[in-house]
Design brief:
Layout lengths: L2 E5 L12 H6 L4 E3 L19 H14 L4 E6 L2 H13 L4 E3 L7
Parallel strand pairs: 1-2, 1-3, 3-4
Helix pairs in contact: 2-3
């Protein structure tokens, strides 16, 4: 099955994916919904030192520490920007896939 890493928008946290997570995991997929540093329930960590680089690193660390060699990155709003930048910084170390969207 697939590994999904879901990136939230700038005014959310990983919890914003709570309705989507069971739909993916019930089909046997592994789903990771990290909250970025300084946002959501981690807003107490906000400082001037937190920025785009920190958020890119947050997601890269999920990939590394969860040993995800293949992952589908899904980004919402600000998360889409992170997704694009992560792919640029990751290079060939990971195999990343864009999910196929079906029109209903």
């Amino acid at each position: 099955m697939a590994n999904f890493v879901l990136d939230h928008g700038s005014c959310h946290g990983g919890w914003c994916w709570k309705k989507v997570t069971p739909l993916l995991s019930n089909n046997g997929n592994a789903v990771y919904t990290p909250t970025l540093t300084g946002l959501g329930e981690r807003s107490h960590l906000v400082s001037r030192d937190i920025g785009l680089d920190t958020h890119i690193l947050d997601i890269i660390q999920v990939l590394e520490y969860e040993d995800l060699n293949k992952a589908i990155l899904v980004g919402h709003s600000y998360g889409e920007l992170l997704e694009a930048l992560q792919i640029r910084f990751l290079g060939c170390k990971w195999t990343l896939q864009k999910p196929k969207v079906r029109n209903s």
